[in-house]
Amino acid sequence: MPAPFSFTAPARLVDFMRQADEPGLINLAAGIPGLEALPTPELAAALGEAAAREGAKIFAYQHPSGDHLLRELLAERLRSRGAEVQGADILTTTGCTQALQLMISILVQPGDVVACEAPAYYGLLELLAAAKARVLPLPLAGADGIDLAAAEAALKEWKPRCLIVCSSLSNPSGVTLPEANRERLVSLCRGLGVRIIEDDIYAELVDGGAPRPMRAFDDGSTVAYVSSFSKSVAPGLRTGVCVPGTLFEEAATRKCQQDLHGSVVPEMALRYFIGSGALEPHLAALRERNRRRRSLGLAAIERSFPAGTQVTHPQGGYMLWAELPRLIDLTKLRSRARVDRIVFASGDVFFAARPARSYLRLNCAKATEEDLTAGLERLGALLQDSA
What we know:
The protein is an alpha/beta fold and about 375 residues long.
């Protein structure tokens, strides 16, 4: 297990987002859904109903913690998953990124040690680099996520300021922590005085439904919970969720200093969308869509990528994590693929230190099914040429 180290973020979130809506691309890179996956008619109806029922309130200031009735609905959903949360415990944020940034800004000072998964979301690594944190990477142990034995030893030795973990369908690896491991990690961190920031943004995409969050095993003194509806409903809503626990007042103050409150129009639209009963049918259809897309992606990789390529089989979601059988010059591969209007996420951007193997994160959700298959097959041919 390496010692904690300072680092410079290997990727810029802004660069990924700039290509998100670039026309003509087969986009296997950004972790975003395709337009046809969005519940556009239902959201439009919810927005219309919100405008009709709320009148001028939809265009006015609101409570700094967010729309009151929406927060009650969100709390009800969390309680249904075993987390004892009330509406007053919740802040709505501008996406999950603001929620993450809020909690990091409260917990982390320059030089502090922060533990996180390796690999981890490049946007998180960028936030940690900006906070001048020293990262303590925790390796994964197959489909069950963080290697608990190694993590326990590292946490006891270094006692980081916090542990940040994407508990379901972790980005990019796709792993989902088993319930027993969630409870054990919470207990371990509570005993060591290590705060947990649980990123739960992909939980609703798990086949069979969202599992119990880590927050279900805590009273808010150890686990701060963050999520959003960007992956499960629509990223353009920019509606995130933050349950800071015992850090609520500090988080609420910082949130208000940043932007007074979240955006009223999408929050009310989301409230009416959930209240209409549209969310569950949408999630069921979305999970089925993602399942089909993953199957297409896995089949294309199996027949096109070099022999020995290892690919995760996540329990849901729409991203695949591929480990190549040997080191590849990913910069050169990206340039060659870009000529064919294909973009993908190089695995090195998900590590604070350059990994010893070559990885690709592949999004199966944004491209059409035909482009998804064609793009992966072409990428496989380029990899074969590089062998």
